[in-house]
Write a structure and sequence with these properties.
The structure holds 2 protein chains of 2 kinds. Chain A is built from 3 helices and 4 strands; from the N terminus they run αβαβαββ. Chain A is an alpha+beta fold. Chain A starts with a helix and ends with a strand. The model of chain A has no long low-confidence stretch (mean pLDDT 96). By secondary structure, chain B is of the alpha/beta class. Chain B has a single domain, classed as DsrEFH-like (Hypothetical Protein Ychn, Chain: A, 3-Layer(aba) Sandwich), CATH 3.40.1260.10. Chain B contains 6 helices and 5 strands; from the N terminus they run βαβαααβαβαβ. Chain B has a 5-stranded parallel β-sheet, with helices on both faces. In chain B, α1 runs parallel beside α4. The mean pLDDT of chain B is 97. The chains are: A alpha+beta, B alpha/beta. At the A-B interface, α2 and α3 of A face α1 and α4 of B.
Chain lengths: 83, 141
């Protein structure tokens, strides 16, 4: 998705993992994805550089759809759709 | 689909290596792996009830002079302790923790109740080797 498309996306669940370092954001994402329905969109907020690599790879392995990443001031918004 | 299996031989009782094991474990459970951890020798001492998360009772095998800096950095970064990692990962995927019986005896802990409450059973080396043979990924820490 383009950055403009990501801005208009309807997010079902936001996981704010900015207070934790790796592997905190991945663990938080794993726990949160179990609470949403297939087709729902989740965003993970993380200030950890590794997360923007980890989450897309994790999505691919788990069968979720990675939608894209937006860089904000000092953190990332990583978007995915649950399978 | 059957879960992929990770088998860890956790020999070390060094606080940094225990933390590393917790971080690796986190990645494995996020990936829905089934994990068997076999706690060997100095690892079994760390799992004793009176040791566990107590940093004063854990050493840092390499560069012991960096232990205080390491622990303070973990705190600043809000990284879980090694026991917290293990405990949380058990709620996410199948994580079984097996204590080597001989290792326990070496450190004066013979019963399951002598170890922190995340240990599942006490076993012999045969169980470890069998799990290692059956695992998709093997690590020795």
């Amino acid at each position: 998705m383009t950055q403009a498309e990501l801005l208009t996306i309807q997010v079902t669940k936001t996981v704010d993992a900015r207070g934790t370092a790796c592997p905190g954001p991945l663990l938080e994402a794993k726990k949160a994805v179990g609470t949403i329905k297939p087709g729902d969109i989740m965003e993970v907020l993380s200030a950890d550089e590794g997360t923007k690599v980890d989450i897309p790879k994790w999505c691919t392995k788990q069968g979720h759809e990675y939608l894209g990443t937006m860089e904000e001031n000092g953190y990332y918004r990583i978007f995915m759709k649950k399978r | 689909m059957e879960k992929k299996k990770l088998c860890i031989g956790l020999y070390s009782g060094s606080v940094d290596k225990l933390t590393a094991a917790g971080i690796i474990l986190s990645g494995a459970v996020a990936d829905d792996m089934a994990v068997d951890i076999y706690v060997l020798l100095q690892g079994a001492r760390a799992f004793r009830k009176d040791v566990g998360d107590n940093p004063d009772k854990l050493n840092m095998a390499e560069n012991p002079e960096l232990k205080a800096e390491f622990l303070q950095s973990l705190k600043n970064l809000k990284v879980r302790t090694w026991v917290e990692f293990f405990r949380e990962c058990r709620t996410i995927s199948e994580v079984k923790i097996h204590i080597c019986g001989l290792a326990g005896k070496i450190w004066g802990a013979e019963k399951l109740d002598d170890f922190i409450d995340i240990a599942d059973d006490i076993c012999g080396i045969g169980a470890y080797i069998t799990a290692a043979q059956e695992a998709d990924v093997n690590l020795f820490i």
